[in-house]
Amino acid sequence: MANYVQEIRKYVGKKPIFMPGSGVVLYDAVAGEIVMQKRSDNGCWGIFGGAMEFGEQPEDTAKRELFEESGVRATALELIGVEAGEALFHTYPNGDQVYNVACLFVCETWEGVPHVHDEESLEIKLFSLENLPKEGDLNPPDRQLIRRFLDWSKNGEIVL
User: Fold this and answer.
1) Which of 71, 90, 131, 144 could join 117 via S-S bond, C-beta 3.0 to 4.6 A?
2) What are the tens digits of pLDDT across the range 117-160?
3) What angle do CA 38, 107, 2 make, to 5 degrees?
4) C-alpha pair distances (Å), 37 with each of 24, 69, 70, 94
5) Three-state DSSP state, 78
6) Continuous segment of H or E residues that includes residue 11
7) 41 to each of 38, 108, 137, how far by Cα in Å?
8) What are the tens digits of pLDDT across the range 55-90?
9) 128 in Cβ contact with 48 (< 8 Å)
C-alpha cells in the first residue's frame, strides 16, 4: 500500500485521500483490559491496524497488521463496525491528509505474547478499560474506534 500511496501523493500532494484499512482491539474480556501500542510516528497510544493492500479482505488486513505490530496471531476476529467521516480524518506529522475508512475488529483469542515487533511501535502496554489513556494521548483516528469498541463491550459509562 505504501507504494500506492506514494504514487497517489505525486498527483495530489498533501491533500486528503481515502484510506481503507482495518483496526484491531486486542481484548482480554476476563481481565477487562486491552493491549495498545505507543506509535512511533506521533507518540500517541492506539490500537493495532493499518492500510488495506490490493486484493486483501478487511479481516486479512487486520490479521496482518496485528502480527506486524504486536507479533501475535489472531485465532478469531469479530467485526464490530465500520467507521469513517470527520472523526477519522487525520493529518500525519509529514502533512499528508487522509480520511480513514476503518473496519474495526475485536480479537479475544490469539497466539503469542504482544511485544514491539516493528518500527511502528515504541511500546506495547495493557490498559484496563477503566484506565485508558486520556483522549489527548490517543492517536486521533483511533478515538472513534475505541468509542465504538467501548459501546460494543457494554462499557458505555467509560468516558475518554
Assistant:
1) 71
2) 999 999 999 999 999 999 999 999 999 999 999 999 975 444 44
3) 55
4) 11, 8, 8, 20
5) strand
6) helix 2-12
7) 9, 27, 13
8) 999 999 999 999 999 999 999 999 999 999 999 999
9) no
Owner of C-alpha cell 490469539: 110
> Distance between CA 6 and CA 83 in Å, rounded?
24
- Which residues have a Cβ under 8 Å from the Cβ of 56 and sit 6 or more positions away? 64
Q: Which residues of 24-42 are buried (b: 16+ CB within 10 A; e: fewer)?
A: bbbbeeeeebbbbbbbeee
Residue type, 33: E
As a whole number of angstroms, the distance between CA 40 and CA 19 comes to 19
Q: Which positions ≥6 away from 125 have C-beta within 8 Å?
A: 35, 36, 38, 45
pLDDT digits (tens, 9 = 90+) for 13-35: 999 999 999 999 999 999 999 99
State the number of CA atoms in the 13 A half-sphere of 160 facing the CB.
21
Neighbours of 62 (CB within 10 A): 28
Beta-carbon contacts of 91 under 8 Å, excluding residues fewer than 6 positions away, are 97
Q: In the structure grid, which three cell numbers stand for residue 54, read together?
A: 490490493
- Domains of the chain with bracketed CATH: 16-152 (3.90.79.10)
